Every structure is written in C-alpha cells, then in structure tokens.
C-alpha cells in the first residue's frame, strides 16, 4: 500500500497521463479489431490514433511509438509495487513518485510509462488458488459455471450486468457493479461488437490472477453496437490482467476464427444448458485456442 501523498498531483502531468491512457485505449481497440478480422472501423481508429499522437511533444511521441512497436502496452499501472508491464519490483521511492503524479515516470526495466490507479477490480484469491496450471484450451481461463446459455435483457448494460454478476457469484471477482461500470466505459471508447453477431466485451487491468472468460448467448440478439443495425448474439466477456494483453489478442483471433463458421455459431446458439454451451465452445475451439 502506498501512503497518500501530501501534495496535489500536477494538473499538467495528470492531463498528459490521461491523454496517454486514452491513446493506448484506442491502440488496443484497433488491435482487437485486427485480431477479430477485417472491419470498417479500422480506418477511423487509425485516424484517431494519429491525431492524438500528433498532439504529443516530439520526444514523447517518439518514445510512445517505440514502445508500441514492441508491445501493445506503452502505459501501465503499478500493482503491489510492481510494473504490470514487465513484472519488475519497483523501488518504494519510485512508487511514491508515481502516486504523487508531479512528473512522468518510466519503469527502469521496460521503460513503459507508469501510473497509479486509485481503484481497481479485485479478484477473489480463494478462486485463484483453485485453478489448475495444467489445463488446456478454454479450461485455462473459463469453466462451465461461467456459461450463460440464456441471457436476458435488451440493452448492453443489462446483458453485461448478468455476466458481471455471474463472475462475482462464481467467486472470480469481488465487485460486479464496479466491473460493469468499467466494461461500459470500454464500450464507450469503441464497440467490441464484431462480425457474425459476436461481441468481445472486456475489462483490462484486473490484476492478481489470469485472464477469465465468461460466455453468454442472447437468442434474440441486441444492438450492442449503437452505430449498427446488426444484432449481437454471442458474448465472450473477459477480465484481463495487464500482462496478458498480448495473449488476449491471440485469444480473440482464435475465438473469431472458430466462430466465423456458421455451423459453429448455430451449435453455440442452440445450447440449452451451461454444460452444453461449455462443451460446444470447447469442441469449437480445440484447434484455435491452445
């Protein structure tokens, strides 16, 4: 725990950090789109990213571009006095300086820009201990208890609320309301609705464990993308530790490849029970999610 600073953060520094975090959110949204397959929003996201990069000071812009060339993450939070980008334990003095936010600080190891997150979604440690390390495929980050074959509601918030509550009820996270709030904030950046009626809603920065996936099916479908008439029916909701961001993109690619086949989607949509949905997703992703 970092003691609260006796000084107020520098507004200019805080503003720069907020801009960099927003920029990274756009970069990650673009990478998610690429992983899920070609889509018409890529050009729009690229324009927004370039516009934000152009607003940065030249040295900052160069550094950010260098970081993004090697990793999707350039700006990372501190968690338990470690850099969530590379896992390096940070000196207490550096952690305190980052918390004070009177200057921009980098990780001494990976050179990513560090920031302090005032609040975060917590995992329940007892659930983490029960998860085995030798599982394969979807079993590494999901289970039958996280399958919802009959989602209700008619809005994104109602659908995601059910999935967040499922994660809390099954002991994966502590606060479903906070998780839902962050999931909706992510949707406001750029919709996670993709082709074929599939959506990949998620929350990043859920530390203290591995990636977790809940799957749900909405038989009628909802307008998850506010700018499209297409309906989304299959929802793959994930909580993602910062360090798993690159793996998440590979996972989205594998899931998208499996669900791009109409017959696979029909099988998933036809599942009546959590057990059926779980088994059908496992079968569909056996070759694409390893």
Automatic annotation (TrEMBL):
SUPFAM superfamilies: Phoshotransferase/anion transport protein. Gene3D superfamilies: 1.10.287.1490, Mannitol-specific EII, Chain A. InterPro entries: PTrfase/Anion_transptr, PTS_EIIA_type-2_dom, PTS_SugarTrans_NitroReg, Zf-RING_7. Residues 139-284 form the PTS EIIA type-2 domain. This is EIIBCA-Man.
């Amino acid at each position: 725990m970092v003691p609260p600073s006796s000084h107020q953060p520098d507004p200019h520094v805080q503003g720069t950090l907020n801009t960099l975090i927003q920029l990274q959110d756009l970069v990650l949204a673009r990478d998610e789109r690429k992983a899920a397959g070609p889509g018409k929003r890529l050009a729009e996201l690229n324009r927004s990213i370039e516009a934000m990069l152009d607003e940065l000071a030249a040295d900052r812009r160069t550094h950010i571009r260098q970081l993004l060339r090697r990793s999707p993450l350039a700006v990372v939070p501190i968690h338990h006095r470690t850099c969530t980008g590379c896992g390096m334990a940070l000196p207490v003095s550096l952690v305190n300086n980052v918390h004070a936010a009177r200057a921009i600080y980098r990780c001494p190891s990976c050179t990513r820009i560090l920031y302090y997150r005032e609040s975060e979604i917590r995992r329940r440690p007892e659930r983490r201990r029960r998860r085995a390390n030798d599982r394969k495929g979807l079993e590494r980050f999901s289970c039958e208890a996280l399958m919802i074959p009959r989602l209700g509601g008619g809005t994104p918030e109602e659908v995601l609320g059910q999935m967040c509550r499922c994660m809390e009820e099954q002991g994966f996270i502590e606060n479903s309301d906070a998780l839902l709030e962050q999931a909706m904030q992510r949707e406001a950046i750029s919709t996670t609705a993709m082709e074929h009626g599939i959506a990949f809603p998620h929350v990043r920065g859920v530390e203290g464990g591995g990636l977790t996936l809940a799957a749900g099916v909405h038989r009628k479908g909802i307008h998850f993308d506010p700018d499209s008439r297409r309906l989304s029916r299959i929802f793959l909701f994930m909580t993602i530790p910062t360090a798993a961001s690159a793996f998440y993109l590979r996972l989205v690619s594998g899931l998208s490849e499996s669900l791009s086949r109409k017959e696979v989607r029909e099988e998933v949509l036809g599942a009546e029970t959590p057990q059926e949905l779980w088994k059908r997703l496992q079968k569909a992703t056996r070759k694409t999610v390893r």
